[in-house]
Specification:
alpha+beta; Uridine Diphospho-n-acetylenolpyruvylglucosamine Reductase, domain 2; Uridine Diphospho-n-acetylenolpyruvylglucosamine Reductase, domain 3; Uridine Diphospho-n-acetylenolpyruvylglucosamine Reductase, domain 1; 3 domains; five-stranded antiparallel beta sheet; four-stranded mixed beta sheet; 8 helices; 26% strand; globular
Length: 320
Amino acid sequence: MTDSIITTNSASALEALAQRLDPKQLLRAEPLAPYTTFKIGGPADLLYYATSADALATAVSAARELGVPWFVLGLGANILVGDKGFRGLVIRNRASAHAIAPDGRLVAESGAIVRDLVLDSVRQGWSGLEHYVGIPSTVGGALWQNLHFLSPAPERERTMFIAEVFESCEILSEEGERRTVDADYVQFGYDDTVFHHRRDVILSATFQLQRADSVALQRILQENLSWRGARHPWLEIHPSAGSIFKKIADVGAGRLVDQCGLKGFRVGDASISHMHANIMVNLGRATASDVRALIAHAQQAVLERFGHALEPEIAFVGEF
């Protein structure tokens, strides 16, 4: 998930890039652990706060032009940052402007936090995002992963996807062009979109919401938060990156790990959650090396017992 182009004079390229970014929004040698939900990760050479879609596009374009590796960081979920950090530019996406039009179209910059959009839309009587209230994500991350949740209550018979309310998004393509694209371009799948396979950057998105009763929507929020809270470790107590392994149809990756008796198994301060076997938690001082060793142990155990090869769902960022 990082550029492979590295200049022969990386120090000078980094300095040239730093000179083109707002110094008030720029940090050097900044540890990334506090910026991820796993609370793991070494320092970035440069960490830049992009507070608008234009600033995000400018930073990416400058890094590309100068050949500096770069990575866009939202809320830091679904990733594991290496203990040695990231050599290059990490762009902290804080482009969060958003508004709901009278026809229910919600336009939001890609750094907007999904929970904020959920609360705003429900307060105004608009339905479509309430399923995702308990999931830590920005708009960009939600589209990248095709955010989903088992809903609605009480049956929870199907998975709801962010693609269902998606209308379009503005991107900075890997070719450097700003353009608006639709769902055909995005190619929504399960935990997959075109953004896994191209270095496009999502700048903003438009969602089409539907009118609904605010009281009923508030009830759904409470039901979803309660249901998720009873089945997932709380990030405030046990930091994690969410599900570690990709779904295996009709089997369940977490179920296989559980059947290997691995709930609670730990390497260092990284442990497989007692609540959910497809989630690994940081018990306090876990390192990226601890997590990778734990992942390898779970993969080997499942392969030997069931013959299934577990594939990580999380992204590995930086140097390990």
